[in-house]
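fyi for ur records
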Amino acid sequence: MNTEKSLYGSELNPGGLSGEKRHTRRRRVLLIIGLILLLIVGEFFRSNLYIQVEEIEFLNRDIPKAFNGVRIVHVSDYHNHGGGYEDRLVKKIREELPDYIFLTGDIADSIKTDIDAADSFLEKVSKIAPCYLVWGNHDFDLSQGDLDKMRKCCEKNKITVLENDYTTIERNGSKILIAGTDTEPDAGRAAELMRTLPPNQRFVIWLHHYPEDFDEIVKKTSEKNSTADLVFSGHAHGGLIGLPFIGGIYAPGQGFFPKYTSGRYNNGNSAMIVSRGVGNSGWTLRWLDSFHLVVCTLKSA
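which gave:
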């Protein structure tokens, strides 16, 4: 009898313990999967709602002393988001106390177009600080009527639009040249600007929507005895999906694993600052790639 109980118990108890362990293991696996999904979804919402403010100091001996400490807020790829997001973004820009605001294209969206939202944003930021703007591909893909409406909004609100042109900003008698292009550096009116840009300028800021043209801008300006000391750009949307230790995986104009997606890049004596943008194009969304407002402080050596 004892032998039978022992045998019966040896069959039943291990099986019961093994089943309980299997259930515990399954619960742990489901919990881990649930946490991973929660992190993925949470990051998805963070990337498409949160606005990161990145502070960048740019030191250059050619920056006039009068411009030392000047704060530039760099805004790119707004894509006419509108609504409550517009007010939140404008508030963040205002809080940074900019001396100038640079807008590097795609203020409107050619897929989900809302020109009234784009114009509303432009009107609000123009009241914060002097604004300088270049167009992006989405702006040029609008109907002619919508683009003309944006041009009129800029004119009404005294926003300087640089369409393959340049201007100067002045502080206490010192000047900085700002050039703006909206086509490839060696094509059309941009190439003409390269030929007419005043040579031997002390410090030149360049606004250009497409970061993939950075190296060409540096090369062409050097050939024309000019310079592009600091380029501001956008367009890449940070590569849309960020991978740890790798960065963005795709950017328009650059393809997979793009070179220029976010932050500062150097080429010889020239530098470029790329914004990941403050909006989404059409139906695209982000992951590990939050909205990006750049605040650049100029420092004279």
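The mean pLDDT is 89. thats all i got for now
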